[in-house]
Amino acid sequence: MRPSVPSLVDLLAEWLPTQRWFAGKNRPIHEISIGTATALLPGDPGLHHLVLDVRQDGQVEQYQLLLGLRRDLPERLRAAEVGWLALDAGAQDGTGNYKDAAHAFDAAHDPELARCLLAYMADDAVVGPLRFRRVPGADLNTGLAPAVATAEQSNTSLIFGDEYICKLFRKLSPGVNPDLEVNLALTKLGCAHVAGVYGWIELEANGRESATVALLSEYLRTGTDGWKLAVTSVRDWFAQPHYTLSPDQGVGAAGGDFAGEAERLGEATATVHQDLAEAFGKAEMPPEHVHTMAARMHEQLDEVRANVPGIEPYAEAIGATFSALGQWSRPLPVQRVHGDYHLGQVMRTETGWVLLDFEGEPARSPVERREPSHPLRDVAGMLRSFEYAARFLHMTGPRTPPEAERELELRARAWVARNRAAFCRGYASAGGPDPDAHETLLRALEFDKAVYEVRYEAANRPSWLPVPLRSLAHLTE
């Protein structure tokens, strides 16, 4: 009797839930099938583009995987291994070994194989259902080898030298990905606060609507991640001796004060919002649609209350804010916005702030991601990110005595207050809707984002759950 050999889908069923970018980690996988399989580089080593149809809770979601096959797997690729795969389970030699077997692995981590993506884009190649596209006039340097970006993401980004970054969209949705759609439009407008687009890859298969699977854009080699800058500022503030600076004063005197950058970021955000309005237009949401939006906020809150008990002490105050929005009585100006705006989506370069990742919130549907919204939705997202930055070190560091806990929380609030005010001041001064004049709307949008964060962290990063909950404790006081 031949030994049982795991199939590729068996291996994937164990491997997928361990991946940061897999959105269904908190739900059982009922079935995996291969939607499309395209040989990009046949042979050994080989590269195959797979679209995985993953069934969970009666729904099928699609994920993309660059599957590498090597009979001898180098040590540098061991961490990316999916498993040992018998390509022909029925063909054994005299010793009982399979004649055609290989190590299957995530080839995004293999520069020898993944570099072909750039060459295919440069040639506007068509390989099976995959269409590789280059922006007209873009002259791509195909001699660069990629390296996987180390930042934790819902997608996987490959950095080619110091020139390009190629984002592989792991979870696929029908139609043009909003990140491509928005960045292309803003690139054509000459927006100074986005990275230029050079190319993309789309999939057309099985009679389905085409889907964007990758986006190639300018790599901001001089850029520094906004989250890192903000957290460094918080660390400097927390390190000040309590007898030198009290929690309610002096945060601006601490080393690494972030308020100046927060104000400039507000200005850049308002400029991009104006460009988005020019590229995609403006509209007005009638009051009854605002009421529907408030009802959706209530629904999400009810769902999270049913699954995350920690939100319960703040639910009444959050719900009251949503109810106040439900009384809205005038048209609401709306337009295309970023949709998932936070400090991790911006970079500070030599020439100013640059906004990234216009894909929208990972847990939202494609339709929801494209829905016009009031620009203050993005402002609310950034204000929430300041709350995160102020408490990240506190929550993820070593446990501290109760008295020190109280002081750190007071310091966190002081840092947040200073940078919230600076960002809103810069945003209003550059022509954005004044946050101070839209208190009910902004508060509802910020609470809606906070509830989403609680839902997301509970499902994907439970160790981070105290971060949004602690911020709600003071926002609902």
From TrEMBL:
<keyword id="KW-0418">Kinase</keyword>
<dbReference type="InterPro" id="IPR011009">
    <property type="entry name" value="Kinase-like_dom_sf"/>
</dbReference>
<dbReference type="InterPro" id="IPR040999">
    <property type="entry name" value="Mak_N_cap"/>
</dbReference>
<dbReference type="Pfam" id="PF01636">
    <property type="entry name" value="APH"/>
</dbReference>
<comment type="subunit">
    <text>Monomer.</text>
</comment>
<comment type="pathway">
    <text>Glycan biosynthesis; glycogen biosynthesis.</text>
</comment>
<comment type="similarity">
    <text>Belongs to the aminoglycoside phosphotransferase family.</text>
</comment>
<keyword id="KW-0321">Glycogen metabolism</keyword>
<feature type="domain" description="Aminoglycoside phosphotransferase">
    <location>
        <begin position="262"/>
        <end position="385"/>
    </location>
</feature>
<protein>
    <recommendedName>
        <fullName>Maltokinase</fullName>
        <ecNumber>2.7.1.175</ecNumber>
    </recommendedName>
</protein>
<keyword id="KW-0119">Carbohydrate metabolism</keyword>
<keyword id="KW-0547">Nucleotide-binding</keyword>
<dbReference type="InterPro" id="IPR002575">
    <property type="entry name" value="Aminoglycoside_PTrfase"/>
</dbReference>
<dbReference type="Pfam" id="PF18085">
    <property type="entry name" value="Mak_N_cap"/>
</dbReference>
<feature type="domain" description="Maltokinase N-terminal cap">
    <location>
        <begin position="15"/>
        <end position="86"/>
    </location>
</feature>
<keyword id="KW-0808">Transferase</keyword>
<keyword id="KW-0320">Glycogen biosynthesis</keyword>
<keyword id="KW-0067">ATP-binding</keyword>
